[in-house]
Amino acid sequence: xxxxxxxxxxxxxxxxxxxxxxxxxxxxxxxxxxxxxxxxxxxxxxxxxxxxxxxxxxxxxxxxxxxxxxxxxxxxxxxxxxxxxxxxxxxxxxxxxxxxxxxxxxxxxxxxxxxxxxxxxxxxxxxxxxxxxxxxxxxxxxxxxxxxxxxxxxxxxxxxxxxxxxxxxxxxxxxxxxxxxxxxxxxxxxxxxxxxxxxxxxxxxxxxxxxxxxxxxxxxxxxxxxxxxxxxxxxxxxxxxxxxxxxxxxxxxxxxxxxxxxxxxxxxxxxxxxxxxxxxxxxxxxxxxxxxxxx
Length: 295
Hints:
The structure is a single chain. By secondary structure, this protein is an alpha/beta fold. The protein has helices spanning 7-10, 16-27, 60-66, 101-118, 142-153, 167-171, 192-201, 215-219, 241-265, 280-291, and strands spanning 35-38, 42-48, 70-77, 81-87, 95-96, 99-100, 122-129, 132-139, 179-184, 206-213, 227-229, 236-238, 269-274. It has two domains: 3-32 and 79-291, 3-Layer(aba) Sandwich (Rossmann fold); 35-77, no CATH class. α2 (16-27) packs across α4 and α4 packs antiparallel against α5. The longest helix has 25 residues, at 241-265. It comes from Pedobacter ginsenosidimutans.
């Protein structure tokens, strides 16, 4: 694995676009753009003629040699719209060491956007916070990508998760299925994030949820701290970490399993990702889900 996929190395590079480029250039080394069979320019293979096939695709030279009808299939690049959703509620300010969940989300979002752009996909950005939603509709060009990087850099988490608005109208898009990637810590008080996902699910798009967690909240190891504050409500609580750790981990594991099943039941791809984990698996998950949208 390249050191450029190490989040500590990535976040030492303050230029988000440079970090994304270096990450993806290393990750994509030797990987070609995805292709599908279709009426393109580059030859792929022959197959037997079937009733209803376009006669213009018949290969008459093969017919002359074999006295049988064959169709020439070729390869075309697939292009889709990828919408990146970033949770910018205050809980994303949670830190572990030198960087926060939102830092990790920014670098992950930037890397995914660069990778999608490299594959010829249109990329959109949606930042969800209490004051509403900032949106950039999907588009495919370098200037749009540069603006997307700039908007990612400007994210400053604040307040609770966004209040319900016209999600369906905002994400309806074109008639084709799209890939929606949601980077969030899934901190919610009234299932508001699940309700958002339910709404998006009715649009029949492919949805990927990256559930961002920090190592200290996974292990309940806050290096001597005993007072904890809710970043969204300001409420505080006293905890003896040593005594609480076993019970905490049991409840956390139960919560994560319950969340996984909830999203699995909704046919939403779900992966927990820790802020100290390299980005390579998240990028592979993206490519895997993207391949399902070949039309």
